[in-house]
């Protein structure tokens, strides 16, 4: 079984929901997520909504989405973002995870695309 | 010491199951990238953003580094105890990675397995941590010296034979820490950090990041269309086209914009004292109990058990902030945090600390004999108790000067160098100007007064004040604990 390091998000083909969660280790650290859409349904998730989360948003199958995640570290720590797409029936269609570590004072960003 | 065989077998199986080729992650040359657009763009971000507008922090840390490349490199570079890939230590590491029971890191010459902190969270009763340090086993020092005393090549041959039989797990140290006090402030510090972050991010940064996200997505969509138009599925199929290269340049320039946004966020956070929160947590009155057990193969040395009780506090702490806010009718939150940081003792440049500790350690008896070589070594069981006090205070606003008192008592059975030994040192450290540092060959001037309860414990001094006391001065580059 190969160790898969790239997790591709499957194409969203039906009514679906995006669930975004940020898990924190160490810290304090804080983050925010900007959700860009090719339609007109952009969204912005604040730190308090992301942890423990999930912050949710309905997805339109006609659109593509991009998530820009910004993280600041008040103290050494690590944060893991999980972006999950679930169908109307509650089934998980796809999951993508990214982890970042940082020292006190670091400010970093990450980008994720759906699909 | 060895892990139970059954566990070793299970770990080995897990590791084998995870073996496999790692995908190519190079995004420098798009033609060598056989993935899709999304992976390519994320990997492009992995390399960081170029250009003068990017923050030093983002460049230093590779601010836009991605999970995929970082993880691939981490897995590739992860060390094994014997320096050779595929050992049992690799299996343990992959076990941790796969089951997410903890993390693995390198500290000096040791490979460290850290159990996930949330597994040892005792809520109001404090928090614990458990970790195992796996060191490369070496022949026990006194035994090595005994072999060296043997004639001709006998000693080195014997040493070589023994060392070749060491396994990766023949020197393991288990460390458990229970901490009470510092952890209790978690919710307060998190709330404070969140308030400051929200205030810093929701200004001009949030709309700029939202705009950058839209632009990045737009480039990605146009790249997707380019690929579909050519009937291609991978970046490598259109990598040389001018349309693709233009889009890539556009994407890179958006990454530079994100660098600007991060710099703006960093400036906002700095203004509100965000980075000081870590110091305030460190300064919380904290009790800690450390328990350590080091187990080694017989020839690598005796087992050692130790315990340490520690109390520490600093003048900058969340408790101090809370008291100040209550006393002065201020907000115990982001609003008045900056004002608190300007008061004496709370400023990053004029803080104090206190550390008290008591230690006990016990080393098992060590016995080894090789009759045919006439070698015999028998070291009795030994115990050491010690206690120490450390107090420090910064004397100037620019962090250029501080004074520290360190006092230590210890008593070791069977060790004449540590029998009823008390030594105290009062030091004044002055950071030198760049010009003086160049001339003096070091960045700090340190002047110390040393006192010991016996003349033989005092050590060398530059000026003798009495048999038990002396004055020392030096210029060094060592970073002091209170720096």
Quick rundown:
The complex is a heterodimer of chains A (about 120) and B (about 475). By secondary structure, chain A is mainly β. Chain A has one helix at about 45-50, and strands spanning about 15-25, 30-35, 45, 55-60, 65-75, 75-85, 90-100, 105-115.
Explained architecture:
The complex is a heterodimer of chains A (115) and B (483). Chain A has 115 residues and is mainly beta. Chain A has one domain: Lipoxygenase-1, CATH 2.60.60. Chain A is 3% helix and 58% strand. In chain A, the strands form 2 sheets. A 4-stranded antiparallel sheet of chain A has the order 4-1-6-7. Chain A has a 4-stranded antiparallel sheet with strand order 3-2-5-8. Chain A is elongated. Mean pLDDT of chain A is 85; it is low at 1-9. In chain B, 37% of the residues lie in helices and 27% in strands. Chain B has 483 residues and is an alpha+beta fold. The longest helix of chain B is centred in the middle third of the chain and has 30 residues, at 242-271. The chains are: A mainly beta (115), B alpha+beta (483). Chains A and B meet through β2, β5, β7 and β8 of A and α2, α3, α4, α8 and α9 of B.
Give a topology summary.
The complex is a heterodimer of chains A (115) and B (483).
Chain A (H helix, E strand, L loop, with lengths): L15 E11 L2 E9 L5 E3 L1 H4 L4 E5 L5 E9 L3 E11 L4 E11 L4 E8 L1
Antiparallel strand pairs in A: 1-4, 1-6, 2-3, 2-5, 5-8, 6-7
Chain B lengths: L4 H14 L18 H10 L9 H6 L5 H11 L10 H12 L2 E6 L2 E6 L11 E9 L5 H8 L5 H11 L6 E10 L5 H16 L3 H25 L12 H30 L4 H7 L3 E11 L7 E11 L3 H10 L6 H7 L11 E12 L2 E5 L4 E5 L2 E13 L6 E12 L8 E11 L2 H7 L3 E9 L2 H4 L4 E2 L4 E8 L7
Antiparallel strand pairs in B: 1-2, 2-3, 3-4, 4-5, 5-6, 6-7, 7-10, 8-9, 10-11, 11-12, 12-13, 13-15, 14-15
């Amino acid at each position: 079984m190969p160790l898969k390091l790239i997790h591709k998000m499957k194409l969203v083909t039906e009514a679906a929901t995006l669930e975004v969660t940020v898990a924190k280790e160490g810290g304090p650290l804080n983050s925010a997520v900007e959700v860009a859409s090719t339609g007109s349904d952009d969204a912005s998730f604040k730190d308090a909504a992301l942890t423990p989360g999930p912050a949710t948003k309905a997805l339109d199958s006609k659109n593509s989405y991009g998530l820009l995640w910004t993280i600041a570290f008040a103290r050494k720590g690590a944060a893991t973002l999980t972006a999950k797409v679930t169908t109307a029936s509650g089934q998980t269609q796809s999951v993508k995870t990214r982890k970042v570590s940082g020292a006190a004072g670091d400010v970093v960003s990450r980008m994720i695309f759906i699909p | 010491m060895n892990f139970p065989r059954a566990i070793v077998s299970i770990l080995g199986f897990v590791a084998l199951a995870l073996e496999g080729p790692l995908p190519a992650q190079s995004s420098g040359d798009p033609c060598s990238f056989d993935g899709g657009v999304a992976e390519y763009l994320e990997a492009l971000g992995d390399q960081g953003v170029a250009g003068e507008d990017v923050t030093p922090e983002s460049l230093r840390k590779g601010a836009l580094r991605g999970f995929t490349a970082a993880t691939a490199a981490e897995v590739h570079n992860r060390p094994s105890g014997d320096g050779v890939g595929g050992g049992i230590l690799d299996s343990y590491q992959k076990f941790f990675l796969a089951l997410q029971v903890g993390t693995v890191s390198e500290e000096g010459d040791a490979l460290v397995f850290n159990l996930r902190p949330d597994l040892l969270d005792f809520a109001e009763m404090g928090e614990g941590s458990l970790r195992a340090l796996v060191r490369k086993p070496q022949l026990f020092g006194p035994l090595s010296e005994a072999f060296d005393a043997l004639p001709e090549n006998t000693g080195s041959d014997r040493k070589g034979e023994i060392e070749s039989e060491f396994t990766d797990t023949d020197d393991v140290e288990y460390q458990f820490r229970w901490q009470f006090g510092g952890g209790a402030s978690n919710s307060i510090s998190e709330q404070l950090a969140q308030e400051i972050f929200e205030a810093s991010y929701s200004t001009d940064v949030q709309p700029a990041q939202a705009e950058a996200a839209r632009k990045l997505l737009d480039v990605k969509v146009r790249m997707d269309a380019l690929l579909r138009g050519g009937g291609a599925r991978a970046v490598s199929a259109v990598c040389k086209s001018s349309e693709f290269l233009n889009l890539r340049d556009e994407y890179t320039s958006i990454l530079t914009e994100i660098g600007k946004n991060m710099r703006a966020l960093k400036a906002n956070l700095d203004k509100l004292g965000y980075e000081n929160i870590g110091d305030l947590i460190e300064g919380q009155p904290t009790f800690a109990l450390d328990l350590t057990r080091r187990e080694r193969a017989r020839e690598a040395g005796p087992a050692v058990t130790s315990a340490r009780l520690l109390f520490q506090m600093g003048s900058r702490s969340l408790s101090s902030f809370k008291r100040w806010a209550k006393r002065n009718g201020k907000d115990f939150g982001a609003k008045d945090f900056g004002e608190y940081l300007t008061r004496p003792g709370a400023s990053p440049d004029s803080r104090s600390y206190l550390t008290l500790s008591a230690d006990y350690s016990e080393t098992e008896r060590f016995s080894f004999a090789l009759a045919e070589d006439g070698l015999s070594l028998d070291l009795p069981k030994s115990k050491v108790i010690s206690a120490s006090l450390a107090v420090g205070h910064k004397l100037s606003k620019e962090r250029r000067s501080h004074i520290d008192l360190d006092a230590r008592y210890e008593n070791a059975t069977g060790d004449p160098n540590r029998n009823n030994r008390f030594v105290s040192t009062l030091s004044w450290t002055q950071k030198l100007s760049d010009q003086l540092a160049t001339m003096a060959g070091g960045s700090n001037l340190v002047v110390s007064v040393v006192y010991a309860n016996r003349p033989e414990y005092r050590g060398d001094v530059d000026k003798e004040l009495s048999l038990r006391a002396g004055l020392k001065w030096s210029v060094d580059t060592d970073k002091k604990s209170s720096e």
